[in-house]
């Protein structure tokens, strides 16, 4: 926990997302996403998480204590021209949004790896983050006959009031259980 023992000031995710390509009723057991439901092209966008100055500083003080993340005055003197969120904070917020809006409603058995993690532009206080993911590949698992591997491209989107832009992206592979082995 940050100094003081609480995460006060760290904004909580809000709102629900929208699903494209999901067929209602396709996941017969409680609307849980399973391997069979993850067709190439399946895409969802969800979130909203507002990044606050207090939240950026609280995260950075504990996990990435660099001046551009912890000290607004020092950050103003950097090439960034002001306080920015740690890239790991951005990934953490995106992960939280994916867990709340996708992974907890799926037969996810765990991640197999992340490739091509890229930060495209800094995230600043006031930016509202959302996550978009799209299934780009799927295949049977050679070692788990009751599961398959789903590969998704993930983009973290930030709206700074002037429009939405991709601020971070990566490709992730997860193991998902099948409805029937």
Report on the structure:
InterPro entries: HotDog_dom_sf (IPR029069), MaoC-like_dom (IPR002539), MCH/BMMD (IPR052342). Residues 1-30 are annotated as: Disordered. This is Acyl dehydratase. By secondary structure, the protein is an alpha+beta fold. Mean pLDDT is 86; it is low at 1-28. The protein has a six-stranded antiparallel sheet, with helices on one face. The protein is elongated. 28% of the residues are buried. It is 19% helix and 35% strand. The chain has one domain: Thiol Ester Dehydrase, Chain A, CATH 3.10.129.
Strand content: 25-35%
Total domain count: 1
Name the CATH class.
Answer: Alpha Beta
Q: Helix- and strand-based class?
A: alpha+beta
CATH level 3 topology: Thiol Ester Dehydrase, Chain A
Total helices: the number is 4
Stretches where pLDDT falls below 50 for ≥5 residues?
1-28
Summarize it:
The chain is 19% helix and 35% strand.
Please outline the helices and strands:
Blueprint: E1 18-20, E2 43-50, H1 53-63, H2 67-70, H3 72-76, H4 87-101, E3 108-119, E4 128-140, E5 147-159, E6 164-177
Antiparallel strand pairs: 1-2, 2-4, 3-6, 4-5, 5-6
């Amino acid at each position: 926990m940050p100094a003081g023992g609480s995460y006060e000031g760290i904004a909580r995710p809000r709102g629900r997302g929208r699903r494209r390509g999901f067929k209602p009723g396709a996941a017969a057991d409680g609307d849980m996403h399973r391997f069979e439901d993850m067709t190439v092209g399946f895409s969802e966008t969800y979130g909203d998480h507002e990044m606050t100055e207090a939240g950026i500083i609280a995260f950075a003080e504990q996990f990435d204590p660099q001046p551009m993340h912890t000290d607004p005055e020092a950050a103003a003197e950097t090439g960034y021209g002001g306080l920015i969120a740690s890239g790991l904070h951005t990934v953490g917020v995106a992960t939280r949004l994916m867990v709340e809006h996708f992974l907890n409603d799926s037969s996810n058995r765990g991640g197999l790896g992340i490739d091509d993690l890229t930060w495209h532009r800094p995230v600043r206080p006031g930016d509202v983050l959302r996550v978009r993911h799209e299934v780009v590949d799927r295949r049977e698992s050679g070692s788990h006959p009751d599961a398959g591997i789903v590969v998704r491209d993930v983009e973290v989107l930030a709206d700074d009031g002037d429009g939405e832009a991709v601020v971070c992206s990566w490709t992730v592979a997860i193991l998902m259980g099948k409805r029937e082995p």
